[in-house]
Write a structure and sequence with these properties.
With 416 residues, the protein is an alpha+beta fold. Helix content is 38%, strand content 27%. The strands form three sheets. The protein has a six-stranded antiparallel beta sheet. A five-stranded antiparallel beta sheet has the order 3-4-5-6-9, with helices on one face. Strands 12-13-14-16-15 form a five-stranded antiparallel beta sheet, covered by helices on one side.
Length: 416
């Protein structure tokens, strides 16, 4: 029994390894008409059992387009999991191949996918899948949805669209796949999902699809949406997979601090933020969690960002009782480097969200290492990230890895 459980865990970790996500805990900085915008893409992947028939990947092309898919293999157990893993391997392999040759072409990617499935599905087997290319800069979406639930789009002016499937599920008898475009779509939010989300039963016996649209529209961020889903259906009745995209501007009401790279300036900034939380009547527990996170992140920005001290060097300095003297020397050398803090509270009915961004002038880090949080959480040794995940509701890094945005609800989840 022990070895069987161990084998299942290895199989699940293999699934996670095969899945590709080029935006782990990362947000994209955009500039539109001189205004700065943020694009956040989050994925929720919760198999109902260890072996999942659901799968997904999210890729970013060299020229900045987002390309992703969610697939739902017919059946359950090992057969469905093998089909899901096979299509994921192929789609990611051919994406990389196109990028290495002449650049990614959505139509070619889908044509090759159909040929692959025609050779690898059984006669009676089908595959439901939605494939999407989002050209961020031109606000154009291409999609091929094959037997999947409608995906949702909310435009910047608040208009809602449900984009229904434009193809039946794929099988060996499928001869072609229709590709549609949504020109000039200026997205505020977008949701793609498998039917495990919409068809799960709520506590009263109705399917969640009857409330899904309203919960998506009302959600202020992905964590808010996840909380609504959990309140409605708990773990669900099937694999739950969805991609939640949100584009937004930084609030003009947010406070901005630009501080020198000194320990004294950090202490003063912490007092300022603590005073802000107190003035907005944030409860002591939530306030202490935010302040502990702020302290950790500001010290990281100072020591790793402004001073350029990596983890190995810091450990060496501490072990040899040289840390304080070296930090004093580096402070005198780099105090002119700025650390920027943007923070504020976003109201949303009775539930308010505290959000803050801390950025430094350091070299940053490769945010793709954060995939290890998902695949090998028990082996991930980033102390700061572990603290952040436990104390906060969500966080994002920029591409360079020298800025982090944190989110924490300051009022509890509402009963639905």
């Amino acid at each position: 029994m022990f070895h069987e459980k161990e084998d299942l865990e290895k199989a699940f970790n293999k699934e996670l390894f095969v899945i590709k996500n080029d935006l782990y805990y990362q947000q994209i900085d955009l500039t539109k008409n001189g205004k700065k915008e943020l694009l956040r893409v989050d994925i929720s992947y919760k198999p109902h059992s260890t072996l999942s028939g659901d799968t997904y990947s999210l890729r970013k092309t060299n020229d900045g387009r987002l390309v992703g898919f969610i697939a739902d293999a017919m059946g359950k157990g090992l057969s469905a999991a093998m089909s899901a893993m096979a299509i994921t391997r192929f789609l990611n392999y051919f994406f990389d191949e196109l990028e290495e040759e002449e650049g990614f072409v959505f139509d070619v990617w889908i044509h090759k996918t159909l040929k692959f499935l025609q050779k690898n599905l059984f006669d009676e087997e089908i595959m439901s899948i939605v494939l999407v290319e989002y050209n961020i800069h031109e606000s154009v979406i291409k999609y091929a949805s094959c037997g999947m639930p409608a995906f949702f789009i909310i435009s910047e002016n608040g208009d809602f669209q449900a984009i229904r499937s434009n193809n039946p599920p794929l099988s060996i008898f499928t001869e072609n796949v229709r590709i549609n475009s949504l020109p000039s779509v200026s997205i505020s939010k977008m949701l793609c999902y498998s039917d495990g989300l919409s068809e799960s039963l709520m506590h009263g016996g109705k399917i969640y699809g009857s409330c899904l649209k309203d919960d998506f529209i009302d959600s202020i961020c992905v964590k808010d949406f996840r909380d609504k889903v959990a309140m409605r259906i708990g773990q669900g009745d099937d694999d739950l997979t969805y991609i939640y995209i949100q584009k937004l501007e930084i609030s003009k009401d947010f406070k901005v601090l630009r501080i020198p790279s000194t320990y004294e300036a950090i202490d003063e900034a912490l007092l300022t933020v603590a005073g802000y939380l107190k003035s907005h009547h944030v409860d002591s527990k939530t306030s202490s969690q935010i302040m502990l996170t702020f302290s950790e992140l500001l010290l990281n920005a100072l020591e790793h960002g402004s001073f350029g001290v990596d983890k190995a060097r810091k450990n060496y300095l501490i072990e040899h009782n040289q840390f304080d003297d070296e930090m004093l020397r580096l402070e005198q050398l780099h105090h002119n480097k700025k650390i920027k803090i943007i923070y504020g509270i976003i109201p949303n009915g009775k539930r308010e969200l505290f959000e803050a961004t801390i950025s430094d002038q350091g070299e940053g880090f490769d945010t793709m290492v954060l995939k290890n949080i998902v695949i090998n959480a028990e082996k991930f040794n980033g102390r700061g990230f572990v603290i952040i995940r436990k104390l906060l509701d969500h966080f994002y890094f920029n591409k360079k890895g020298n800025a982090i945005t944190i989110q924490k609800f300051i009022t509890p989840v509402l009963e639905l």
